Amino acid sequence: MDSSPVTVASLPATLRLGEVELTVADLDRAVGFYQDALGLQVHRREDPVAALGVGGEDLVVLVEEPGARPAGRHAGLYHYALLFPSREELARAALRLALRRTPIQGASDHGTHEAIYLADPDGNGIELAADRPRAEWPDLRYLHGPQPLDTDGLLGLVASEEPRRHAAEGLAMGHLHLHVGDVEQGLAFYRDVLGFDLMTRLPSAAFVSAGGYHHHLAFNTWRGEDVPPAPPGTVGLRHWTVRLPGAEDVAAVRERAGDAVDGDLIRDPWGIAVRFTSG
Questions:
Q1: Which strand (E) or helix (H) includes residue 118?
Q2: Alpha-carbon torsion 252, 272, 122, 201, what sign?
Q3: What is the CA radius of gyration of the chain?
Q4: Burial grade of 117 (CB within 10 A; 0-12, 13-18, 19 or more)
Q5: Most buried among 36, 51, 121, 187, by the most CB within 10 A?
Q6: What is the pLDDT of residue 6?
Q7: What is the pTM of this model?
Q8: Cβ count within 10 A of residue 276
Q9: DSSP character for 6?
Q10: Residue 65: closest CA among 47, 46, 42, 45
């Protein structure tokens, strides 16, 4: 398989990610989870929509579709990552999960960052992460698989503290990881059209970013090659958001995207939507 890039302008190094918008089947249930398990606060709610975060910009926007079906064997969200500003804040999040007996799906040390994996009540995948200093990152060209997370060491950072109900300021959207039908086709879109840089290529996944970050986006074929787009009426990702420095940067991406532009969104070959905005 040829992973050679087509020459295209890279996205600005100062790129950052904004909110993710998710379909859920029961808004009350979902809001309760995000408040109690993750410590987010409701910024605003006007049914069937609720926006949550830590008091600044929205991080997660939930849209209720009663009767929405669980995700199946199709393209869509694998997980999104909430990035904590420090290892201590990740430890406080882990303590919050433990005290509420929230099930987790895994916990890993990726070298670049430490991570805890879980799902919301609708099965939307979530990663809670904290980056290591960039000077400590391993060579991103050679990924040998994650190590187990040192949970005892992590929780030991906050062992003497009282549990905190809310996540602290500084929480941000770290990255998105998607299920797609073909990695090369994903690279042809996200790298060669939108302008992300390839950081790591595995046989069944690719990790891309701007500014040398370990990844702002990953996509894999772990649900199978050639999986179709998500059918209507399914829980999962409605769109994710990329914030660029200026309106001219957004205009340049939209011009490159061409026929993939759908209103204020851009859709990849599997219909997965991303919104580019300035600010």
A1: strand 113-119
A2: negative
A3: 18
A4: middle
A5: 187
A6: 60
A7: 0.95
A8: 23
A9: P
A10: 47
Q: Which residue has the tokens 């009767």?
A: 67
State which amino acid sits at residue 65.
E
Question: What tokens does 219 get?
Answer: 């996509």
Does residue 259 contact residue 266 with C-beta atoms inside 8 Å?
Answer: no
What is the spatial distance between Cα 75 and Cα 224, in angstroms, rounded to a whole number? 9
> Which positions ≥6 away from 55 have C-beta within 8 Å?
41, 43, 169
DSSP notation for 47-78: TTEEEEESSSSEEEEEEE-TTPBPP-SSSEEE
CB-count burial class (<10 Å; 0-12, 13-18, 19+) for 244: buried
Which alpha helices (H) appear in 44-121, and where do they start and end? 87-99
- As a whole number of Å, the end-to-end CA separation of the chain is 37
Exposed (0-12), middle (13-18) or buried (19+): which is 196, by Cβ within 10 Å? buried
* Helix extents (H) in the chain: 27-36, 87-99, 151-156, 183-190, 247-257
Token output for 115: 């991570």
Q: Dump pLDDT digits (tens) for 174-216.
A: 999 999 999 999 999 999 999 999 999 999 999 999 999 999 9
